[in-house]
Amino acid sequence: MTIKQKDISEITITHDGRMTLSNAAKYIDCSAHSLRLYMSLGIAPAYFSIVNKVYFYKKDIDEWLELQKISPAFAKSRIASQKKKGQ
Fold first, then answer.
1. Which residue range(s) make up the domain with 47?
2. In this structure, is residue 9 part of a structural domain?
3. What is the block-wise mean pLDDT of the chain (87 residues), using blocks of 10 residues?
4. Number of structural domains found in the chain
5. pTM of the full predicted structure?
């Protein structure tokens, strides 16, 4: 199995760790549209606005990504329950 390393060289992060919405979307590997949808659903990383511009802190995104992990045991039980529903 090959694990692809994320290339963040094209993502602009300020000296204090801020990213714009478009850069944050690139960082988490989703579209800006999807990230806005997550924001509207209340499931996005913490963010703030200054004069109609949305910003995210890298540390908040990293913490949010950690919370998105699913344990192998949970994933296995979830797959098993979905298979049962499909029968």
1. 18-86
2. no
3. 63 95 95 97 96 96 90 71 68
4. 1
5. 0.72
